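Glutathione-regulated potassium-efflux system protein KefB
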Amino acid sequence: MENMWLVASEWLGLALVGGLLAGWTGISISLMEIAVGVIGGNFLGLHTTPWVDFLAGVGSILLTFLAGAEVDPEVLRTKFKESVSIGVIAFLLPFAGALLYAYYALHWTLQAAEIAGIALSTTSVAVVYAVMVETGLNESEIGKIILAACFVNDLGTVVALGILFANFNGWMLLFAIVMAIVLAFIPRFTRWYVARYGNRVSQLEVKYFFFLLFFLGGLASMANSEAVLPAYLIGLAVAGFFLQEKNLALRMRTMAFAFLTPFYFLKAGLFVSLPAVVASAGIIIIALLVKIITKFIGVWPATRFFKFEPREGMYTTLLMSTGLTFGTISSLFGLNHGYISQAQYTILVTVVILSAVVPTMIAQAFFRPDLVPAPKQEKRRHVLIPQKEEGN
């Protein structure tokens, strides 16, 4: 019987190494944790346990929830046509292109090809958001449109994953009804609940969100869908609330990235076989080109239609070609449910990782818009609010 504490120290030790490497190199922490997971799986004998699988699952759900909660509803309203059009096109064409390539050229099964289409249709909100903040473009009009389009793109991938692999039975009907009711009432109820029970030592607001994520994720799983679907929708529903409750968002983000998401990203890298990467190098390169080219075919003309400057259009197209979080989530979903093999998983995750790096480097080096960010508002002072005692 394995020593649970030593296994936990091994996983968190690798997460610590990944974090240090990310700090030294400036590379995304998610990418570094996946890379360390690849090393752990290929050279250190790292393997999963049931409790590791659970923590990795919680990490993916919470990460998806937080991604949805990052949406700025005001941007979606003011730049609705641009963000929705670019986001939808950026999902549809790569999805169709990757699916057809996997099904007809690689002779994968239809379900495996559908997983490939979903995994390679994504845009990395994590990568794009980090780039926007780092360059200050998140305060510009072009930056806000790109971020909103990313959210629309990834919503399409999450919905596709939920629909294509769901069982349309009584459980699906129950899930749809409960989900509709929750989405209708959660924005207003959440504000009332947190105002009434928030800021206590027991962190009742955090428990509230975890209950919703677990309960709706459980219903989604009973319908053979994926728990990330309700997590993303709940995040979108409470995005306006989280924009005002920065402290709560920070606490949940800290919890996720400090302890939960490392298990998910390390596990994502764990199943990448380096011999399979070498053996499938040609397939990986072509799949990467399929993703990037189909993104260009769809997004570049859309940017011209909305009168983006050529440099801005190319920058937008390259950033919309990135992928990471939802690409690995959908690939791992396919592997865990037996829709794809480990060799196919290796191909998809390798393409996803390359798509997070290559387009971003090209965009930043050659097409970064020469824009001046809007003046930032004076930062508010953060006053430490004493937590309520239990029972108050």
